[in-house]
Design a protein that fits this description.
single chain, about 120 residues, alpha+beta, Ubiquitin-like (UB roll), 4 helices, 5 strands, about 30% helix
């Protein structure tokens, strides 16, 4: 049995998915995994100082200690703000949803028995 850690490093773009496994020493940090996997050389636009990273979907820093079988995820910056995109989609439909009271009245009318 080894005292090392097997860590998976993941970086996904719309075009490619990079999943790399590295073996590190027991007290390794997120930064060690990123450097060891070679992603910084393979994708030159990644800058170690500005990377947003996480471990299994939870935000982490480069100095976060890793455990056995952890997965380090390198996040890309958002292209658009999700709230702004949602607002734009809502405005582009041109129709507004009826309010709660209007929906309740419509549903009550639809569920009303025919003989009353």
């Amino acid at each position: 049995m080894t005292d090392g850690l097997v860590i998976e490093v993941v970086y996904i773009t719309p075009d490619t998915e990079r999943v790399m496994s590295v073996e590190l020493v027991a007290d390794a940090l997120v930064q060690d995994a990123i450097v060891a996997c070679g992603i910084l050389q393979a994708v030159p636009e990644l800058d170690l100082e500005t990377l947003q990273v996480g471990v299994y979907g939870r935000p982490a820093s480069l100095s976060t200690k890793l455990g056995a079988d952890d997965r380090v995820e390198i996040y890309r910056p958002l292209v658009r703000d999700p709230m702004a995109a949602r607002r734009q989609r809502a405005q582009s439909t041109g129709q507004q949803r009826p309010g709660r009271r209007a929906r309740q009245a419509r549903n009550a009318a639809l569920n009303k028995p025919a003989n009353s």
